[in-house]
Amino acid sequence: MQRFLQIFGQQKCKVIGMIHVDALPGTPGYAGNWQQTIEKAKYEAELYKRQQLDAVLIENMHDIPYVQESHLGPEIVACMTRLAQSVRSILPKQTPCGVQLLACGNKQALAVAKASQLQFIRAEGFVFGHVADEGYTDACAGELLRYRRLIDAQDVLIFTDLKKKHSSHAITSDVSLLETSHAAEFFLTDGIIITGTATGQAANPNDVAELSGKLKVPLIIGSGVTKDNIASYYKETQAVIIGSHFKKRGNWQEDIDEHNVESFMSKLCELRQT
Which family does the record assign (predicted)? Predict the structure, then answer.
């Protein structure tokens, strides 16, 4: 928890805004718009800077259909590094910035973070295995933390999704969320992320209650947070990751609507003053 507070500050319930970069070169949705992709990411970074978000997370969300780590090409790592450097150069030095590479590109994300001087990554499949829409995901904590040591990236925090969205967890149905969280803590995670069942879906309040106050690392809500439900998460979690709610019509595929961001941050400001 101390490392998290040193990087993110003491203020309650940090807001991490998503930058869903356009489909990257080599993926089915790529539209030949590489320079535009860079400019759009920079614009969204400026927008978040203007609205004083606590942190930013960059993700290749539009690279559907996703592939597993072994099939992620060097072009994806290269492009995400270029984008991360562009975003990092715009954000204030004290604003943490992170990256996630779908799907399960956790080592690649660490490499991008190291090269671009980012502060954290979001990792899938840290402990236990599960079946996702892109295939079977195996646990990676042992390899990932050794790789972090190998490339001298110990200052990069690793936030880990547990029982992640868009996945089946039948093979670990006998392992509770709390037990899974304790396993992740034992395997040295820097933060635990819980989500709803799909992008934009709110986390189950029972899941939040099961973990609140029982962890030694930050609890982060990774989907479905809105202006209308932030009050229910505010006192129970250390951070929230928001993507869909900031977009037009609440659709992650749309552009960010600055009014939505401003409205949410105003609501959060009210909570912080109470």
Answer: Belongs to the BtpA family.
Q: Do 125 and 140 meet the contact criterion of CB atoms below 8 Å apart?
A: yes
Cα distance from N-terminal residue to C-terminal residue, the chain: 24
Q: Please say if the pLDDT value at position 211 is more than 70.
A: yes
What is the distance between the alpha carbons of residues 212 and 218, in angstroms, rounded to a whole number? 10
Structure tokens that stand for 191 in this block = 């933060």
Within 8 A by CB and 6+ apart from 180, the residues are 127, 128, 162, 163, 172
| H/E stretch holding 203 | none
Residue 196 in tokens: 């709803």
- What are 88-125's pLDDT values in tens digits? 999 999 999 999 999 999 999 999 999 999 999 999 99
**Tens of pLDDT, residues 31-80:** 999 999 999 999 999 999 999 999 999 999 999 999 999 999 999 999 99
Under 8 Å CB-to-CB from 226, ≥6 apart: which residues? 202, 245, 250, 264
Q: Where are the alpha helices (DSSP H) in 91-229?
A: 106-116, 141-150, 177-186, 205-211
Query: How does pLDDT run across 239-254, given as a tens digit for each residue?
Result: 999 999 999 998 999 9
Q: Distance (Å, rounded) from C-alpha 141 to C-alpha 229?
A: 32
pLDDT at 165 over 60: no
CATH classification (class only), 2-273 = alpha beta
- Rounded to two decimals, the pTM is 0.94
How far apart, in whole angstroms, are the C-alpha atoms of residue 65 and residue 56?
24
SS3 149: helix
Q: What residue has token string 């106050």?
A: 213
Sheet hosting strand 167-168, strand order edge to edge: 135-137, 130-132, 167-168
Confirm if 149 and 93 have CB atoms less than 8 A apart.
no
Q: Which of 17, 152, 24 is nearest to 87 (CA)?
A: 17
